[in-house]
Please model this.
Amino acid sequence: MKTRNQTWLSLFSYVVLLFLYLPLIVLVVYSFNRSRINAVWTGWTFDWYISLFQNRQVVEAFFNSLTIAFGTAVFATIFGTLGAYAFYRYKYRQKAVLSGLIYLPIVLPDILMGLSLLLLFSFFSVPLGKLTILIAHITFSIPFVFLLVSTRLQEMNVDLEEAAQDLGATPWQTFRYITLPILGPSIISSFLLTFSLSLDDFIISFFVAGPGATTLPIYIYGMVKRGVTPEVNALAALLMMITLITVALAERIRKIGDRKQKM
Amino acid sequence: MNQRGKWLAAPAFIWLLCFFLAPLFFIVFYSFFERGVYGEIVYRFTLSNYIRMADSIYVKILLDTLAISVITTVVTLLIAYPLAYYISGLPKRKQRIWLLLIMVPFWINFLIRSFAWIIILRSKGIVNSLLLEWGWIEKPLALLYNDGAVLLGMVYALLPFMVLPLYVSLEKLDRRKLEAAYDLGATPWKAFLYVTLPLMKHGIMNGSMLVFVSSLGMFVVPDILGGAKSVLLGNLIQNQFLSARDWPFGSSVSIILMVFSFILIVLYQKAVAAGQHWEGERQ
Model:
């Protein structure tokens, strides 16, 4: 009786897993399908990818996305890491309020962040474009870095820092030779994760992007709205692959850090 | 101790203050202004944006949104619970692989994940092509652009949010308590109701809150998979801001969304605090 239940349970779980992955697999596989109009498989082709790279708008959107993602990753990683470090090291009077400010952006629906920034920018007559997208992306990325780095700091061996200081290291030396090497992997993985968060973001960018600055997800949205073509398929698959590779890389680096810590 | 280092946190907090907290107040201000003839903002105090929301069209949108959010939450809970239960019973190594697999789709945006369903469900999509080829149907079925497709898309998009918190609390669950219940002659159903469920309360609430709040503000999934009639709160806001250009009304609708989200978050935190208090006293 019990084993039969177990079988059903594992079968159910695999079906759910299939449900999660089937659409993504289909998306990738069909981006190589030669047929233009329907789902019938007519053979492999790279044509849709080639035509993407010949499309100037796509290349421009791609370049915009990469620039913004890079800028986001740099600023969010610096601000978030410094914030998490100071927050861990020092006492603050309003710690609960401040940590609320970190957590709230994660729970609040994205659409609210997008439109509230649109109102802010328009009130101060800031022209919408790459800069406004960058500002928005840094805003939703800071909490991510903060959480990642804080988790790491909490796992860190406090004795090491104290020992260094007892041995006469200045706070800067302690930070440079003890804390930073321990935090290194999580800083790099924060960088990669915020890079992919930015690259992948659609909702918030949609509100704060001007007509002049299109990112890849916004371009995909426009294409989807105009109708399903194999090119959308290829572009969506491409963005998905880049995102997943970046995330996988980040995860790997974090793992290496974990192992180092244990030794 | 030297306290100057405290200021290292300043850039992050000042940034969030300027670009996260302050803009939220702008929504409040704008919701009390008027819209001019050409979509510009007239800075004159009015309550008309809120009064307009009592209109039956908008009340219906609000109720539809609440309904689909509740259904999405319940369906994801029903799917996620057995899955999380299965994962928590596996050996540690396998657990990690399963969790990773559940997490991966989380990194791909709603737009792409909804679009993937279009390829499967559209009239010339995979499902219809197969059914036609097998001769099961004569005309393509209308699988897309209806409320069913929206619900499917929402469940699909938000499922990982439910699985992870459930897994976390199942992981902590002391299975010996269940065994004790069985030893004392409890039926599986009673053991679930009186032992597992109370211990799982935290995880269920955590996951439900994440899914519910996310569905309330969802606009991508209904926009891509829904028909002309599938308008939710998120789509209403999107329209007011990006096509109708009625920002004050859009702001007042957003306030409704914000209030609902805040109430849920606060209620949830109260419940968590109360739960911890209660458990603390018991020990």
About this structure: The beta strands of chain B are 34-35, 41-42.
